[in-house]
Amino acid sequence: MEAFTGLTAIFFAAIFTNNILLTNYLGMCSFLGVSREVKTSIGLGAAVVFTMAFTSALNWLVYYYVLIPMHLGHFRFIVFIIVIAAFVQVVEMIIERVSEPLYNALGIFLPLITVNCAILGVCLFMLIRDYTFAESFIYGFGSGIGWMLAILAMAGIRQNMKRSKVPKGLEGPGITLIIAGIMALAFMGFSGMINI
Amino acid sequence: MSDHHAQAKSSGCGGLCGGKCGSTIQDGVIKNNPIIHQVLGVCSALAVTSKLENALVMGAALVFVTAMSNAFVSLLRHLMPRRIRMIVEVAIIATFVIIFDQFLKAFYWDMSKQLGPYVGLIITNCIVMGRAEAFATQNPPLLSIVDGAANGIGYMIILALIAVFRELLGAGTLLGYTALSTAWYEPNVLLMLAPGAFFTAGFLIWIINALRGRKDV
């Protein structure tokens, strides 16, 4: 029971109080680039949730069962990024075989994900915080959901903003960053609810 | 961009880099500043700028990694099979990130702790990858080093600007020394937190775009 409450705390903390995008600033590149429409954000968000959950679990296994016994801990950066790239490639091939509509929906986003710093960020944070295997998986999953929530909210706002007049120099990334700031301010309201 | 280089006039170390050195530096630092113009590498730009010291170390890391990885990608540019060049580039970049990380851990342990995962995240920093892919695969090694260093410096300048603003108003200090006395200045802690980072970066982009727009007209 205690383990269960611990995992739930990590899950909700990853979504709300320690949102990977709004408090750790990770995954900004694709956040600024792909948040124009709700539909594409859902696709990218779903791909991120999936990849984040499984690569964090996979990298946990690789780190503690391969790298540590071989005393190669300092090679983790390069190994993690290769694991992520390979995982994305394999998933892309499987999806292509299994489901045509799913491939059409997610296919174009998968290559983008390899360079999404949030994925690698989650893998590095889980080491810094000494998570167990289950905790890492839940943390990755929760962070993915948190990222998706943020990009969905931003896409919704930007869709509605199309008709509003934004000062010229502020168009594009400028206004997106400021909206992200206001969102981060709103998410700060959650802080203190859960501590991890 | 290649057109631009073609018209460039020789300056400085012109002989070595085929006369493109000056314009490459200008491009990287000002004209095509990676953060302001291409909005790349924003993640770390926001994360490490709550203190000027961290921002400078991060900037130095990027200068080193971008210059070195550009050099090696450029040296290997005729040998790399096109289909696997991405993974080769990532491997080269990761190697230099690991070198820098080990260096920080060995000599500046506190700094290494403070930067946490963000040093490792240089691997996925789009600036490094972008320069390797867009510049180093098409240009000779020396010019690629110059380009990498110039982009790194451009990144460092923006980071330092954001960090000066955030540290000065957020904590009243600069590089750890008290700049605004707490006797009359109440630090605005919001600037040290996430929203402050987003606001500062957003407004900085606005100011620079506005200044540039006026100059163009």
Structure description:
Chain A has one domain. Helices cover 73% and strands 0% of the residues of chain A. Chain A has helices spanning 2-17, 28-34, 38-67, 76-98, 100-106, 110-114, 117-128, 133-161, 173-187. In chain A, helix 3 packs across helix 4 and helix 7 (117-128) packs antiparallel against helix 8 (133-161). Chain B is mostly helical and 217 residues long. Chain B has 10 helices and 2 strands. Chain B has helices at 2-7, 14-17, 21-31, 42-47, 52-75, 85-107, 109-115, 126-136, 141-171, 194-216, and strands at 173-174, 177-178. Chain B has a two-stranded antiparallel sheet. Chain A binds chain B through residues 22-29, 32, 74-78, 81-82, 85, 115-117, 119-121, 124-125, 128, 167-170, 172-178, 180-182, 184-185, 188, and chain B through 39-44, 46-47, 87, 90-91, 94-95, 97-98, 101-102, 116-117, 120-121, 123-126, 129, 193-199, 201-203, 205-210, 213.
**Total discrete domains of chain B:** 1
Q: Largest sheet of chain B at a glance?
A: 2 strands, antiparallel
User: Average pLDDT of chain B, to the nearest integer?
Assistant: 81
Please estimate the helix content of chain B. Answer: 55-70%
Question: Could you state the oligomeric state of the chains shown?
Answer: heterodimer
Largest interface, C-beta closer than 8 angstroms, per-chain residues = A-B, 43 and 43 residues
Q: Going across the major beta sheet of chain B, what is the strand order?
A: 1-2
Radius of gyration of chain A: 18 Å
What is the count of helical runs of chain B?
Answer: 10
Overview features:
A: 196 residues; 9 helices; B: 217 residues; mainly alpha; two-stranded antiparallel sheet; 67% helix; 2% strand; disordered N terminus
What's a concise summary of this model?
The complex is a heterodimer of chains A (196) and B (217). Chain A is mainly alpha-helical and 196 residues long.
